[in-house]
C-alpha cells in the first residue's frame, strides 16, 4: 500500500453578493438551510471530510464576501486553492454577467501555475424559485461554461431545497483532488498545501465562527 | 455610598437580551452572558438624577457606572447620544433640543435629495437587485420590477422575509400610500445618468438592500418591514453624504442597533453618523487594501509585545496577517456575541 498523506483540498467559493454562497456551503456541510443568513464579512471557512475512491480528503471550503470592494483580500484568501467555485443566482442576470470578472480576478490573484488547466466549477443557484422567475437559462450558462477553453462542470442547484448540492460538491472535490495531484507531480506549484492536517484540522472539527 | 448586600440576596439580574426579543424559531443565535443588575446597571432613575435642573450632565459619575454595569435598555438610546458625542454633556436641555431639531431638518433635506434621485427612498420599500450599470444605464431586472411595482405581483409575508431573493415592501405603506411609483416612473429605461457620483451611489443601493434583509433577522424587531426600510433609508442617505466610503458590507451591522435604540429615524441616523466618524477608516477600500487592515497590523504589533508566544503561534499557523480578526473589528464583535451583549461591550470602555 502506498503511504498516502492526508490531503487538504482548498476550495474557494466566489460570486456576487446574495447569490447563496454561504447557503450552499452550509447546506453541503451542515445539511441545513436558514432563512436568516447574515452577509459574510471578509471570509469564513468550513471543513468536511469525505471519501473519494477510498481516499480520505479534507475539503476546506472558503466562503467569501460578495461585495466587489473586498476583492483586494483575494491574494490572502485564494493562495493555495485547488478549485474555484463560481456561483450565480439564476434570477439575477447581472450575477451571471459578472462570472467573467470573478474568474479573471481569481486567476490574477491566485496566480496558479497553469491558469489554462485550473479547475472551475459553475453553480446556478436558487432554482427553487420556479421557471417564471428564472432570468438566466441553463442553455446560456452551459454555453458560457464551454466557451472558456476547457469545459467547466456546471450544476443548477437549490441550497434551499437541497437540490444537486451533494452532487456538485462531489465533482468539486474530485476536481480539487486532481488539481492537487497534478501540482504534486509538477514540483510543488504554488505553496505546498499538504499541510500538517493531523495537528490542525482535527481540532477544527468541521466548524468555524459563522 | 452603597449598602452592601450579602451575595445570596443580591439581584441575580435580568438577562440582557430579554429586551431584544428573538423569534422563537431562531435557535442558533448566541446566548446572552451579561445580566442587568439593579444597583450596578445604570438605571433610568440614576440617569435622570445625573442632570442639573438646566440639563447639564454629570458625565464622570455616569461613565463609571456604565463601566461597571452597562446601561439599562430602557434608556440606552438617550445615553448613547452622549456617549457617541451627538451632544455635549455641558449643554442645556434647550440647547440640545435646538440642535436636535436642526439635525432632523438636515436629515430630511438629504433624504429628499436621495428621494429625488431614486423615489423608493423613503417610500417604505426597497430593492435587492441592481438598478443600474456601471455606465449609468438602467437595468430592467425582474426582481427590481416587482419591488418597485408592488401591484405587479402578489407578495406574501413569507417571501418578503426570504433572504437575498426577498421581495421587499412595506406592507403598511402599500395600503396607505397609493402606488405612485410605477416601474417606469422610478427609472425610465432610456434615461442615462451622467453624474458619476449619482451612478456610484445607485450602484450601492441593491447591496444595501441585500444586506438589510440579512441583518439581525432573528430579532422580532425586524419582522416589521417598516424597520427594514428604515435601515435601508439611513444607509442609503449615509452613502450619499459620505461618498468616500459609500456603503460597505458590515455597516448594516453597525447601523441596526441605532434604529432599535432610537425611535426617530433622523436621531438614529445621527448616532450612526457619529459612530462612523470613528470607524469609517475601516471601510475605506482601495484596489489593494481594505481600511481595517491597518487595525489588523496594529493588533499584530500589540499582540507581539503583550503575548509574543501567542503571536508566534498565530504566525506558525499562517495567520500572521491577522485576517481572522477581520470581521471582529469590522463589525465590533456583533457576530461573536448576542445582540444585547455586543451593545454592552460597545458602551463599556475598558
From TrEMBL, chain A:
Subcellular location: Endomembrane system
Glycoprotein keyword on record: no
Domain of life: Eukaryota
Keyword Mitochondrion appears in the UniProt entry: no
GO biological process, one term: protein transport
Membrane topology term: Lipid-anchor
PANTHER family for the chain: RAB FAMILY, RAS-RELATED PROTEIN RAB-7A
Name of the protein: Ras-related protein Rab7
Source organism of the structure: Corymbia citriodora subsp. variegata
